[in-house]
């Protein structure tokens, strides 16, 4: 993976190697690889040889029904998961409000989902569409194939997980544990 100035990156994405850059704000050094620690846009300072990730820029945006967002799962309950809505897809504009997102169990996929822990876990980074807005409360859906989990960490060792041949299954790179998720077609394998 070769990143350019302005590229949108996610936590854990490799930005470069330590011989190329000094790891700046929003990054960390992982055994010689510089990785992003946040969702944001790459900023390369070629003079200083630093690489950073900036969380947000531009004019604030209000969410609308039909928008696609990136967020992170903050809680998994019996009937719904809570989502920290981080940003709109395809723009670096920050959100005008600190929206509170949630996905009801009926809005995860087409057909029946037995339990929400088969779809999401705390810390998962997801893509979802806005289906309803009430003040700063936003109902989200991941029924669309492109929606769902983009990046997940193993619940046992916190290593990043990879897709397998099986639909909606991920496997930990580090400890080989398999877990179920509502996996997006845009899932990011490292
Ligand atoms: Zn693991």
TrEMBL record:
Component of the archaeal exosome complex. Forms a trimer of Rrp4 and/or Csl4 subunits. The trimer associates with an hexameric ring-like arrangement composed of 3 Rrp41-Rrp42 heterodimers. Interacts with DnaG. It comes from Methanobrevibacter woesei. It holds the Pfam family ECR1_N. Non-catalytic component of the exosome, which is a complex involved in RNA degradation. Increases the RNA binding and the efficiency of RNA degradation. Helpful for the interaction of the exosome with A-poor RNAs. This is Exosome complex component Csl4. Residues 66-143 form the S1 motif domain. SMART domains: S1. The gene is csl4. It comes from the Archaea. The keyword Iron-sulfur does not apply.
